[in-house]
Amino acid sequence: MNRNMQSYLAFGDDEETLNLGAKAISDYLKAQEVTLEFSLDEGSGKIESGAAFGAPDIAIAHVDLMEKGYADLELSVRSVGGHSSRPYGGTSLEHLACAIADITRKPFPVRLSPVMMGAFETLAPYITTEPLKTPAWYSCRP
């Protein structure tokens, strides 16, 4: 085992907006020819009650294990046009609204990764109250 390892602490501040911090960190490490063994991301950095997970009798320090995902979409439509009282083939707004409705009717599937399942299984013996006392999450097992 190599005991001569380095640790890097890197902090971005714009994850919920532009996400340029993570890119700058990645670019810097790449330029320095740094190869990481692993990365821990998104811990709150504090020890808090497990009540939010239904385990009020224990304290939890967590590292977030999954990301929520994100997508920007740009939709544009064209139509033949016509008078608004009798549009030929529907209005552009109608076509755009239908496209948006189609997107919302097909959300990404909900899934728990094996790592997240392991976290819940580890926490399970300590869960005494809802929302996780009834293990509905267990049915998400791959």
How would you characterize the overall build of this protein?
The longest helix has 14 residues, at 92-105. The protein has 142 residues and is of the alpha+beta class. It is built from three helices and two strands. Strands 1-2 form a two-stranded antiparallel ribbon. It has helices at residues 20-31, 92-105, 114-123, and strands at residues 48-50, 55-60.
Keywords:
single chain; 142 residues; alpha+beta; two-stranded antiparallel ribbon; 2 strands; flat
Helicity range: 25-40%
Helical stretch count? 3
Q: Give me the secondary-structure category.
A: alpha+beta
Shape descriptor: flat
Count the beta strands: 2
Terminal Cα span: 33 Å
Main β-sheet, spatial strand arrangement: 1-2
Portion of residues in beta strands equals 5-15%
Regions with little confidence, pLDDT below 50 for 5+ residues: none
Instruction: Give the helices and strands as they follow along the chain.
Output: HEEHH
Instruction: Please tell me how large the radius of gyration is.
Output: 23 Å
Mean pLDDT: 78
Taking the sheet with the most strands, its summary is: 2 strands, antiparallel
